[in-house]
Amino acid sequence: MLDKFRIVLFISVVANLLSCSVVSSKDISSAEKKSPRDTVNQTNNSVSIKKYKFIPPTLTIKQGETVTWINNEKRQYHSVWFEQSGDKESDYLFPDDQYTKTFSSKGTFTYKCGPHPEMTGVIIVE
User: What is d(CA 40, CA 87) in angstroms, rounded to the nearest whole number?
Assistant: First the structure.
């Protein structure tokens, strides 16, 4: 009885896989091909983390605004660390994770990635 169940289960799984439609990449518009990893929306004060870089490397905002960092890497983790300001390092950001920080005072704030200290960025608060 158990062998018959396994056979029926196997056949149904294979049938389901075969019935799935396949879409060619030619059928997908270029707008649909773009993932969140491919875009940076600077109008909402976001910083993309991609290819071991903060993009943009320098961002100017107004006092009281919030910045969001988005890890757009496919496999790598990063962090955001305002070490010189005395802040603790953010939790590690795995792909598609985000970190936000609100800047209540004016100034120039440098930051880096804890695991990859060669990655640096600057937030200028006016």
Answer: 25
- Report domain 45-126's class: mainly beta
DSSP-derived letter for residue 7 is H
Q: Which of 62, 69, 64 is nearest to 121 (CA)?
A: 69
Amino acid sitting at position 70: I
Q: What is the pLDDT along the chain (126 residues), one digit of tens a residue?
A: 556 655 554 555 444 444 443 333 333 333 333 344 443 444 479 999 999 999 999 999 999 999 999 999 999 999 999 999 999 999 999 999 999 999 999 999 999 999 999 999 999 999
Calpha distance 102→97 (Å, rounded): 17
